[in-house]
């Protein structure tokens, strides 16, 4: 948590698990340890669920227009975003591929706000919950109708460890595309360092009883 500033803005960019329960715990830790709230960007479909819009607003969740994100950062808030979003949540798997495509809006937000980007990854997040999105039918539904209906299963009490990388400082000479690639490499580096590939539920469960890290 020492990577999170005690005050001032920063953009946290994280890998999106099938259910981002790790991110929820991260938000709680920011409140408890830093005494700060972290705004978040969520997919548009969540705001269409009856009764969810008010709940999301209470927890400082926005649907992600760049202007709104920039304003939140310029106001000195922390902001969390997953460039992979729903696609990464549903269609990534135990090999932990980053499914960001050519998205660079988050990088442009950081440039416009002149803030640092902090990469984040949680070990075993795919072993806690898994998605059947790798089945062709569910992928077709999403790509054709934007219906995120791939079943998710799990709730396995595996050992989660969340790692924050070194902040990537604002650089006025870097383009959004270059910065997006740099952040992609930073998150991938955290995955390579801390996650055994492919992930394994049994191994992740056993990690509750010992503390050997992959990096060791």
Quick recap:
The chain is an alpha/beta fold. The protein has one domain.
How would you sum up this structure, described in words?
The protein is an alpha/beta fold and 216 residues long. It has one domain. The chain contains nine helices and eight strands. The strands form two sheets. A six-stranded mixed beta sheet has the order 3-2-4-1-5-8, with helices on both faces. The longest helix has 19 residues. The model has no long low-confidence stretch (mean pLDDT 93).
List keywords for this structure.
6-stranded mixed β-sheet; globular; single chain; alpha/beta; two-stranded antiparallel ribbon; 216 residues; 39% helix
Lateral arrangement of strands in the main beta sheet: 3-2-4-1-5-8
Q: What is the helical fraction, as a range of percent?
A: 25-40%
Total beta strand runs: 8
Q: What is the domain total for the residues?
A: 1
